[in-house]
Design brief:
The protein has eight helices and ten strands. The chain is an alpha/beta fold. The chain has a six-stranded mixed beta sheet with strand order 6-7-8-3-9-10, sandwiched between helices. Strands 2-1-4-5 form a four-stranded antiparallel beta sheet, with helices on one face. It is globular and about 55 Å long. Bound molecules: adenosine-5'-diphosphate (ADP) and magnesium ion.
Length: 260
């Protein structure tokens, strides 16, 4: 069973600007990310979504508070323990970050070659099975430059899944994709999440309109987090900043069961 819930308790993070003033990114925020489900963290550009992911990964240190992952405070761990901790994550950032000089096959096989003792034939079986699952079979010898945007994201997802992560982090994974491709990629995340069962966190500057994608949506604004149980629930919020965000990113009233 997946017990990889994440809990922020009074987490504080700020930066000092060039002029010496303090920029508060997280103002003693509290929220929980349930295990084995999908949480979308949305907010305008520059609000601190990527910083939040870096705090979860231990790539950045909080100024105060606790971050519990599966019940353990990870803000205190260092060194080898931190490296081991990061092994539990699969990460898919904006550009998919494939290596241009490697084929799709080599890119996807890389974590298995570097981090496991699997034989070449075991690696081949596993990689080809993943490529088939993500509809990339037949493209394994292509280089990233020969792929469409959606195929690159799928190859990035395939690579991120190789070490069977317990938690997947997606940072603006659909940037640069058209609405149809965006929809397809989010459907694929939802489907893969259900099959594999990882805890999923998707960061986005808007609220994805995809049926059944998000079990919870968190909106980050001026250092505070507002938590909603579904994309629909956001629309009934009376808070002015949420209303404004909904208006600019979701358009007219939206109900996920009406969107295919
Ligand atoms: N290492 C850093 N040093 C100083 N300021 C930073 C650093 N990382 C991020 N910031 C600032 O924190 C704010 C939030 O950044 P980020 O989390 O990347 O926003 P986004 O929500 O767009 O992902 C931005 O204003 C950014 O300039
Ligand atoms: Mg960002």
């Amino acid at each position: 069973m997946n017990n990889n819930s994440i809990e922020f308790i009074k987490v504080e993070k700020s930066f000092v600007r060039d002029d010496g003033s303090r920029q508060v990114i997280l103002d003693k925020v509290n929220f929980s990310i349930p295990a084995g489900k999908t949480t979308v963290i949305a907010g305008e550009s520059g609000t601190g979504k990527s910083v939040t992911l870096k705090l979860i990964l231990g790539l950045m240190r909080a100024d105060g508070g606790q971050i519990l992952v599966a019940g353990n405070d990870i803000t205190q761990i260092r060194g080898r323990k931190l490296k081991e901790y990061r092994m539990r994550f699969g990460v898919l950032f904006q550009g998919a970050a494939l290596f241009d000089s490697m084929t799709v096959y080599e890119n996807v096989a890389l974590p298995l070659r570097e981090r496991t003792k699997k034989t070449d034939s075991e690696i081949k079986n596993q990689v080809l099975a993943s490529l088939e699952q993500l509809e990339l079979l037949g493209h394994e010898h292509k280089y990233p430059a020969q792929l469409s945007g959606g195929m690159k994201k799928r190859a990035g997802l395939a690579r991120a899944l190789q070490l069977e992560p317990e938690i997947m982090l997606f940072d603006e994974p659909t940037t640069g994709l058209d609405p149809v491709m965006t929809h397809e990629i989010y459907q694929l995340f939802a489907q893969t999440q259900k099959e594999v069962g990882f805890t999923s966190i998707i960061v986005s500057h808007d609220i994805p309109k995809v049926f059944n994608l998000a079990d919870q949506v968190i909106v980050l604004n001026k250092g505070k987090m507002d938590v909603f149980p579904s994309p629909e629930a956001i629309q009934w919020s009376q808070k002015p900043h949420i209303k404004a965000f909904v208006k600019t990113t979701m358009g007219e009233i939206y109900q996920s069961h009406l969107v295919e």
